[in-house]
Design a protein that fits this description.
8 helices; 5 strands; alpha/beta; five-stranded parallel beta sheet; Rossmann fold
């Protein structure tokens, strides 16, 4: 099953561009043009990742972050903004944002954190746990998730973006 992503962006052309790019990368993507629409979708469906602009007409990206975590604490939230400040970034990260991206950005900057997020990095590419554990036995620092990413040659690995790899 493809990772489910919700994009919350009031700029229609940016929202459409992000949606197409993520769908082409294999994600199941829904979008919302406003904060209220995003809240309705968050309450009705489950998403692995929410990508939200910070400045929306009715709510803020921080409001979306709080709602996403309230509905499903496992949902990762990536906030993006053209008006980045250190204070906003710190607030977002303290509230549980997975990443904070400044606009304009290359799509790879957005794809990488989504790919590294829990499920996409562990997608099934035909290499099972036993095979990986057998081939990496005795290798210092080897773990299933790391070796799985290498074995699968996940398309996200081609990105030049920085990433936070979590156990």
């Amino acid at each position: 099953m493809a990772e489910r992503v919700l994009i919350v962006e009031d700029n229609e052309s940016l929202r459409a561009g992000i949606k197409v790019s993520l769908e082409e990368s294999g994600f199941s993507v829904q979008d919302a043009a406003s904060g209220e629409e995003a809240v309705q979708k968050l309450e009705a469906e489950s998403f692995h990742v929410v990508v939200s602009d910070i400045r929306l007409g009715d709510l803020t990206g921080v409001d979306i972050l709080k709602k996403a975590k309230e509905v499903n604490s496992g949902t990762e939230v990536i906030l993006m903004t053209a008006y980045a400040t250190v204070e906003t970034a710190i607030q977002a990260l303290r509230l549980g944002a997975f990443d904070y991206i400044q606009k304009p950005f290359e799509i790879e900057q957005l794809q990488r954190p989504i790919c590294v997020n829990d499920g996409a990095a562990k997608s099934n590419c035909g290499v099972d746990r036993q095979t990986i554990e057998h081939t990496s036995a005795g290798v210092p620092g080897a773990c299933y998730e790391r070796e799985h990413l290498i074995a699968c040659r996940h398309p996200c690995a081609e990105s030049q973006s920085r990433a936070l790899l979590q156990p």
